[in-house]
Amino acid sequence: MPTHAPHTVADLQTLTALFGPVGEASLRKEVTYLHPVYQQWIQASPFAVLATSGPHGLDASPRGDPASLVTIHDEYTLLLPERRGNNRIDSLRNILHDPRVALLFLVPGVGETLRVHGRARITVDPALLQRLAHEQAEPKCIIEIKVESVFFQCARAIQRSSLWAPPAADARSTVPTAGAILSALTDAAIDGAAYDRELPARQRATLY
Predict the structure, then answer these.
(1) Whether residue 116 sits in one domain with residue 152
(2) Of 31, 124, 150, 168, which residue is the least packed, with the fewest Cβ within 10 Å?
(3) pLDDT digits (tens, 9 = 90+) for 107-123
(4) The pTM is what?
(5) Within this chain, do residues 195 and 107 fall inside the same structural domain, yes or no?
């Protein structure tokens, strides 16, 4: 029999005993398709986190575009364009191995979030690439997601985090810059100051 550290919750009965019963609203809000009210929500979202699973573990990756971030092809299908990035393609590698994906959609200023689960494939259909071009730049490929479940998440997490509150005046100074991180991780083999200095122009030139 496996042993667990003291106070570890290791079975479903113990876990469910920590919480009350699931409310009716929490159960009925989940559907297996893109209901019109959920379509309206998705169309307002410019940002999502894409979760995937692969042979080297899990990945959660941000995705952003002017709203709507994704295109609703029909009530069971979403199209997510893959724009320029760092070429790690962690999410895409995972999808080739395991098509299961999850998306967490956010709308700035709105407390609720929207969760979509489904199965994905990668397509380079020329008509779709042209259709989802932005600023005359076609995406590298498109993630087509067949929806299996959709539901909204209540606003408590956003409220507790004060995510949409105005940032503190010293917010930037409380976390290291990208250049500072790279310099620290490479023992200064990457010039962090130069990286930070050049980054804004590079991002503007390669956004799409």
Answers:
(1) yes
(2) 168
(3) 999 999 999 999 999 99
(4) 0.92
(5) no
Q: How many domains does the chain have?
A: 2
State how far Cα 56 lies from the chain centre.
19
Tens-place pLDDT, residues 78-98: 999 999 989 999 999 999 999
For residue 75, give the nearest of 31, 114, 119, 107 by alpha carbon: 31
CA–CA distance, 44 with 117 (Å, rounded to integer): 18
d(CA 104, CA 151): 10
- Which residue in this structure is represented by tokens 């994704």? 70
One-letter identity of residue 56? H
Encode 71-82: b = buried (16+ Cβ within 10 Å), e = exposed: bbeeeebbbbbb
The answer to whether residue 10 sits within a structural domain is no
Residue range of the domain that includes 153: 23-161
